[in-house]
Design brief:
A hairpin with a 2-residue loop joins strand 1 and strand 2. Helix content is 68%, strand content 3%. Helix 2 runs antiparallel to helix 14 and helix 9 runs antiparallel to helix 11. The protein has 481 residues and is mostly helical. The protein is built from 15 helices and four strands. A two-stranded antiparallel sheet has the order 1-2. A two-stranded parallel ribbon has the order 3-4.
Amino acid sequence: MPLFDDAMTQGLSAPYLFVLFFKTLGFALHLIPMGIWLVGTPCSILLWLFGGMNAKRMAQRFFQQTPILIALGINLGIVPLLFVQLAYPKLFYTSTILVAAHWLGILPVALFAYYACYLSSHFAKKEKLLYTAFFSAVATLCFCAIGLVFSSVWTLFERPYEWEELWRSSAYSFSILGHEITLGGFGSASGLGIYWREMSIFLRFGAVAGVSFLTLATWQVFDAFYLYRGPRVLTDEEELRLLEMEEQGGKKVRGPIQENPEVYPRSVTSIACAFIFLGLFIAIPTLGQYLLRTAQELSSMQGWNQVLWYALIGTMAFSVFLALLFLLLFKIKKVSGRTLAIWMTISDLLMVGAFASLRQWLQNLRLAPYYSPKALEDAAAVDWSAIFLFLGVFLVTLTLIIVFLRLMATATPKSGSAKRRRVKTKKEPKEKKSSTKKNKGEEEFTDAHLHAEQLTLGQSKRPNGGGLGSSTGGKNGIRRI
């Protein structure tokens, strides 16, 4: 007996290849911002709490950019979800009904995570360490919960032969006014709890997280070389170190003083390299185990399918090699920072595209014995007006992404562009415009001096703490001027 009644199935309202292409492309585009905030939020918490001066600055910038990244991720996630409902309605709706309570819980959890990210962004601007870390941790837990529910739904989606057994194992019956009512385990809630014993759910989630680290590394490098608006005025900790130097040398130093603009981007590339290796540490066991399990289950892994299998996996491995290669070339000063950002972006697009294609291809192979959307293709049922409308909206969305990227460039004010705050005092004598000579015992603090100081700055700790940034609070952060 077939699992689906073909008589109740309508033809596709769009060509099958059109649906397949935009379903895969939509998931790849969704994976980019989603991956950034999925793994970037917990990593930024750790950098904020335990990192050095530049690591804290990177975390602060990330927290202020998070709301825009989440908006991009959620909106781009609508695209693959629409095409899933178009091509696989019976699979999608049945899978989500089996885990209905958890599936419906995604909406309030996502809203909670959204507001937590806005609060963490707000407190990051005010340089409140504990509040920022707390709300970011709340958002991280919400993201992980949503990711596990999605992972379970797509695992059920590919295994229709397990639906009936799952429903029976979690169902219970009761009588109301003489009528027997059967529910799938507290409104199907326990169905997900039973199915979470399946290790594939966690392997899928781990594979996505591992791949996302390359995306996070790429984003941080792109932000450092294209969106970062340095140089900036010295932080409180740097000024303290400068005063110590002045006391030791007996010389005065003029301010405000700006940093060497190359110091922060170079520090970001080192952190990005660590992100890539951390992603490999997570992705190799999880994605590797998932692919091995899939290869054992699929008997159709022969001929061209086997060639495509190795081609996609090879593309993913090559993308990681490409990113690490250009990071090495940048470290030995063979390529510029902007060239590094471009090639890392290319490597990440290769990784995300290959991963999305591999996922879609494995899904087609798993569902082939039970359901084939291509068999539902009907030229008479195609609605071209809806297709052109979708393409128009899709182009507008891509345009808005470019606008969002420009907005991110102003997510934090340009350091050194505003005037330093001063406490109102009595009238200060104005400097004569004609005086250009330095007083005896006074010298300019150049970028070379600052660069030498930053090499030892990590060893210097400011007494009595302080906040991350301004003279009114903050620790090791950017001074608001």
